[in-house]
Design goal:
311 residues, globular, single chain, 53% helix, six-stranded parallel beta sheet, alpha/beta, 8 strands, 14 helices, two-stranded antiparallel sheet
Length: 311
């Protein structure tokens, strides 16, 4: 296995939602005496906790976590802002002799980090963005996404149709530059020497874990969390991000659907999300070392791989 001494070492844990990435990251971080950097775009927002299954207080006290609760849903971060923020974190931990553990299911973050994406540095155009938002409100944001899929299918396939913020940003870049959004992402040689570990579940057991997680979210107070967001006037900001669980719960609280319908939709949308994640974290990807979640020897095998890879 070829390694570069110049590149910053990094361990990356990937896998579908509800696969146990947080638990594994904490276990590995304790064993390796290191720290965790979140690679989940939902964890950036301090107002979203229960519906995102964010690591709780005890988990964050057990091992230092970074890139959690760093912004507000009123100040949505781009992938460029995220990449700019993690670089000094990784460098700082490396300088302390630690190999950071990145963990999260946001596929774009993973590809951007391991493939060295260079995100277009186009400054926001508030007037154009407002015009696009008005266009979306007029025709419906799902149709706005459908138009994007016709104009720039490569960009659309990497955007959740519920994430109106990213759809609007793609249109903003296209209309500002006259070029497709998907063609403006450049790559350079990644500055990280990344070992990627994947958690593999069979689909039936994974869906059971998802259902249990969703039930736990409601038991832990998801309704109350969303009610508070509505009271604070954050409903539209939350809906624009497109985080599964929130829009459906808002629809229930506003008497648009029943509670049973909301739960059914959250489960359905989460399963769809898992299938999209599989496009980012492919079983055939030679750079991802997959371990069966049900194999009792997986953790020891991971430690052996880490020792072999980083020496």
């Amino acid at each position: 296995m070829t390694k570069s001494l110049q590149k910053m070492p990094l361990i990356y844990i990937v896998g579908p939602t509800a696969s146990g990435k947080t638990d594994l990251a904490i276990q590995l971080a304790k064993h390796l005496n290191t720290e965790i950097i979140s690679a989940d775009s939902r964890y950036l927002y301090r107002e979203l906790s229960i519906g995102t299954a964010k690591p709780n207080k005890e988990e964050r006290q057990a091992v230092p976590h970074h890139m959690i609760d760093v912004t507000s849903v009123k100040e949505i971060w781009s992938i460029g802002e995220y990449l700019k923020s993690i670089e000094p974190l990784i460098e700082k931990l490396n300088n302390r002799g630690k190999i950071p553990i990145m963990v999260g299911g946001t596929g774009q973050y993973y590809r951007a980090i391991v493939q060295g994406w260079q995100v277009p540095k186009l400054p926001p155009n508030p007037a154009l963005r407002e015009t696009i938002e008005e266009w979306g409100e007029t025709i419906g944001f799902e149709r706005l996404y459908q138009y994007l899929s016709v104009i720039d299918p490569d960009a659309a396939k990497n955007i959740d149709y519920r994430n109106t913020r990213r759809t609007i940003r793609a249109w903003e870049v296209i209309l500002s530059t006259g070029e497709l959004f998907s063609q403006q992402r450049q790559r350079v040689d990644s500055q990280y020497n990344t070992l990627t570990i994947g958690i593999d579940w069979d689909r039936e057991n994974l869906y059971q874990r998802i259902d249990l997680r969703i039930e736990k979210m409601f038991a832990d107070g998801l309704l109350e969390e969303v009610e508070e967001l509505i009271k604070r006037g954050l409903k539209d900001s939350v809906k624009k991000i497109g985080v599964i669980g929130y829009a459906e719960t808002i629809a229930f609280l506003e008497c648009e659907i029943s509670f049973e319908e909301a739960v059914t939709l959250i489960k359905r949308h989460t399963r769809q999300f898992v299938r999209r994640q599989a496009n980012w974290f492919k079983p055939s990807d030679p750079h991802i070392h997959w371990f069966k979640a049900t194999d009792p020897t997986s953790f020891e095998k991971m430690l052996s791989l880490i020792d072999q890879y980083f020496g």
